[in-house]
Amino acid sequence: LPYAYLEVAFPSIKLSGCPVRMMAMTMLSASVIFAMGFKRLFRGGTRKPWLIALLLVILCFEYLPKAQTTTKIAIPEYVKVLKELPNHKGVIDMVSDFYVTMYYQTIHEKPMALGYISRRTRMTEERRKQILQLVNDRQFALLYLRYNFRYLISDDEFIKPSDKVPIKVVFDDGNVKIYDLGATWE
Asked: What is the pLDDT of residue 44?
């Protein structure tokens, strides 16, 4: 029974605000109503076998599982390389948005910064700004030694050769680079 029809029949249900909360009661009520109707249908013998057959066909289609949409998400090469890199210290991904970054973390399985947080507290927001400021100021020793970040992922133009920062490039595909922040300070 679609919830929208139930709201039309019983307007007070709209007060619940979130239909999922009432779904158990909706299913229970629909089951009781269906059982009463089914009992009444069978009460005088099989006078209406076509109605019973129609009802069973409708129920079969009602309970067929909905086809799940599947999409193949292409995994960038740098995520595959990051998975193979040693050490499970932190990663700072400056290339991907934070939703995709969280998905990539399930692949490379390394701790990361700047990902999606459902509720940002003042302290986490301050820490996020500190990390971004250290990255922008090229303070890679602090990122490695104090904050325990080992890898920085950035686009090709983030660190130029003229910056003369003492960090090692472990992956470069022309668009994305992975820098090893700890190679110099170990």
From this structure: 65
